[in-house]
Amino acid sequence: MRCPVCWKETGDKHNAFRPFCSERCKLIDLDNWLQGRYRIATAIEDHDDDDDAAVAAEAVKADTVD
Predict the structure, then answer these.
(1) Do 10 and 19 meet the contact criterion of CB atoms below 8 Å apart?
(2) Higher pLDDT residue, 2 or 50?
(3) Structure pTM?
(4) How far apart are CA 20 and CA 5, in angstroms?
(5) CATH number of the domain that 12 lies in?
(6) Does residue 54 lie within any of the structural domains?
């Protein structure tokens, strides 16, 4: 198995930082996630403004009923 950061061989299966080769690569990967360098793609959905207004109106109505 290769480290996803530096592509070095990770060594034996008892490596504490697996799938990374070292703590350094593990922290680099964490920083990449925290800085937004990695993204998970999602489908773009069209929003109908009328639906949003209806949901907001229902929320206001529910708050005033209490």
Answers:
(1) yes
(2) 2
(3) 0.56
(4) 7
(5) 3.30.50.10
(6) no
